[in-house]
Every structure is written in C-alpha cells, then in structure tokens.
Design goal:
The chain is an alpha+beta fold.
Length: about 400
C-alpha cells in the first residue's frame, strides 16, 4: 500500500480530476468553491479551496495544471493545526422590541412577540447557525453551525423577562471519531440537531449522515455512531438533506421516536422526504410542499403535534418564513402529511434567513417558540434570536 503522503497525493489528484472532468456545470462548481473559500477559517483549507477555485477558472492549461498539482500536494499534508479547544466569545447584542417593523403591536395570532436579539461577534466562527435546542427552558442552549462548530450559550433576560443578550458563549470545532477537525465543508455541514438524555443527534448535509455525540459542553468529542435515516441516499439532494431532527414526546402517538425531515429532497410527486427512524411507526413518510417553501427546522409541541419552520426566497419577494403545524397522529410509515400555516412573515417583519427552531415551556406554563437565523457568514445578513408565546 502506498505511504500516507503518497495516498494523499493520489487522492488529491483524483479529486482534481473528478472536479475537472465530471462537473456538468462549471459555474455551479465555481460558486461552490468560492463559498468554501469564504466560509472556511482554516488557512490550509482556504488554500486548498482557493487553488480549486483557480483550477476551475484559469483558462491557460499550464497554470491550471500548476493549480491542480499544488492542490494535490496540499491534500497530501496535514492541515495547519487548529485547536479543537473551546473558545469563549464575547457577543454584542441589540434588543429587538418590535417584530412588525414600524408597528407597535406584539400579537399576531396565534403568536405573541416577546422580544429578540440581533447579535454579532468579532470571530467568524460565530454565525451560520442552522439548528438549536434549549438544555434548560429559555436559558441554556446548544446550537450547531453549517461551518462545523458547536455553540453553547445562555440567554440573559431583563427585568421584564425579555431576551437581553447572549452570554457565556463557547464555540468549539466539530471533530471526527479520531478527534480530528473536519477538513472539508462537505464533512462538517451540520444542519439539524436533537437532544435527549445527554446525547446530541446531528444531521449533516453534502455527505449525508445523522450522527450521535455525547453531550459534553466543556469539551465535545467526535461521534459515537450513526443512525439509519431510512431514506435512500440517492434521493437526498446535496444541499437539501436533513434540516430537521426532533424527538417526539414519549407520551404521544410516536412514542418518543426521532423524526428526520429533509429540506427539499423531493419524491416524484414533489413532496418532501422524511422518516420516523425508530419505534412502532418507523418508516419513510413525506411532507406536502406548498408555495415554494422549504423546511429548515422543526420541534414537537407538548401535545405531540409537530411545528415546522419553513423558508422561501425569491428576488422579487425577498426572504419569507412561516410556521406550519402537522398533527402528530398523522405521522408514520407511508403517510403524506400536511397541516395549516399558523403564521407567515416577510421582510416587513424582523426576520432573516430563519433556520433554527425550538419549543419550550415557560415557568408560568406558556408554550414558547424560539427561532434563530443563519447569516450565511454574510455582512448583508443578520444573526437573530426571536422569541414568542404560542397561544392555543
């Protein structure tokens, strides 16, 4: 068997050849490479992606060949060391007191706006939040980012109980089972999260998988195993995989099962692939897709119904979000599920690219809905936290 450096060199050459020969659309490939360059904090990975970008775009054969060889050599050496240790981050927050821009009302049945935050931090590791779960009701939370980070934090509150800031923020790179930081975007694109009994379940896109992690906020380790998500991998679109992971209530019809729903991996009828991964109703089901909205997260309500967060974007209308309620008893193997839209908002409201959702109980018994946005590491977008009471 070739030595490790030689294996890396061969792997790099094969990857370069694969990218060059089999990409059906150079412009899409260029866009993907540029996105990786922009989102990656690690220097050696940045160089790999920059050379890949040159490989696609330089027309002169000698220069393109040089880029390919340099890319292969970079794949053959370890990435410059990036410590996987926890990093404390200072986050600046601006309170959002009104949800509907230019209006004073807080009630939009069935939601009542409690408050929100617009957040920023001096590190690019903060951002790209794609899923979150509270570890204690309305206080301590864990989130994952699509750039491969764990984020632990606490919501600070003012005297009225409204969100006032994000404090005790700790960020740590995700690592593989051997403790190595994931070297590529395709390995670390975390998009969904479920938490139960000291375990975090994370869904990844691009290289589709659902992995188990022991929940250790002070020092997260690599995955302890993977979960069978049932949906055939060939049905999963590269960047439209499992955006929702949610544990159903143990007292409901799904008996505590883990439910996984894709963002926009569609069957032949245009419905969204999903699965109940275990328990009596185990099997593939689908969610009816409406009006160009895709699913970005979901969480179960106390009564066992599933609340879905959905997003749409067009040049004409901008970004939109909505909440849809799916009857828990309708979910199961072979089902096509649908449900009413509870609320919808566009750019006239304080929203952005809303990707993360959780449901929790306030001390007074109120059902609370919290959402966070993914800023796509762009200065044109915002990191938001929004909080509502769900009146029923």
């Amino acid at each position: 068997m070739p030595s490790c450096p030689l294996r890396g060199l061969l792997r790099g050459l094969l990857l370069a050849l694969e990218h060059f020969c089999f990409s059906p659309n150079r412009r899409n490939a260029l866009s993907l490479c540029f996105g990786r360059i922009y989102a990656t904090p690690d220097v050696s990975i940045w160089l790999k992606n920059a050379l890949t970008f040159c490989f696609y775009t330089i027309p002169e054969k000698p220069l393109r060949t040089f880029a390919g060889i340099a890319l292969a050599l970079l794949f053959s050496v370890p990435a410059f060391a990036e410590a996987a240790s926890v990093q404390s981050v200072s986050v600046s927050s601006r309170q959002i007191s009104g949800f509907h821009i230019g209006r004073d009302e807080t009630r939009s049945d069935p939601l009542e706006f409690v408050g929100g935050l617009e957040m920023s931090a001096p590190t690019r590791a903060f951002g790209g939040i794609s899923a979150m779960r509270f570890l204690s009701p309305g206080r301590d939370l864990v989130a994952v980012t699509d750039t491969g980070y764990w984020l632990f934090a606490s919501i600070a509150r003012d005297a009225a109980g409204r969100p006032a800031g994000l404090e005790q923020v700790r960020i740590q790179p995700m690592v593989d089972a051997a403790g190595r930081i994931f070297p590529e975007k395709g390995e670390m694109d975390a998009e969904s999260l479920a938490v139960r009994d000291g375990e975090a379940i994370v869904g990844f896109e691009r290289r589709h998988r659902i992995s188990r992690f022991r929940l250790e906020p002070e020092d997260m380790k690599g995955p302890t195993g993977n979960i069978d998500f049932l949906v055939p991998t060939y049905e999963l679109r590269q960047n439209r995989g499992f955006e929702t992971l949610a544990f159903a209530p143990s007292s409901g019809p799904l008996r505590g099962a883990l439910v996984a729903i894709t963002e926009k991996s569609l069957d032949r009828q245009g419905n969204i692939f999903a699965a109940v991964t275990d328990r009596p109703r185990k099997g593939i089901f689908t969610v009816r897709r409406h009006d160009g909205f895709d699913i970005t997260d979901g969480a179960f309500l106390p009564d066992g119904d599933l609340l879905l967060l959905e997003r749409s974007y067009t040049i004409m209308s901008g970004v939109r979000m909505r909440l849809r309620r799916i009857a828990g008893d309708s979910i199961g193997k072979g089902a096509l599920v649908d449900g009413p839209v509870l609320f919808q908002a566009d750019m006239a409201w304080q929203i952005d690219n809303m990707e993360a959702l959780d449901v929790w109980r306030r001390a007074d018994g109120a059902t609370m809905v919290s959402m966070m946005s993914d800023d796509n590491q762009s200065f044109l977008q915002r990191n938001l936290y929004l909080e509502f009471v769900l009146h029923e």
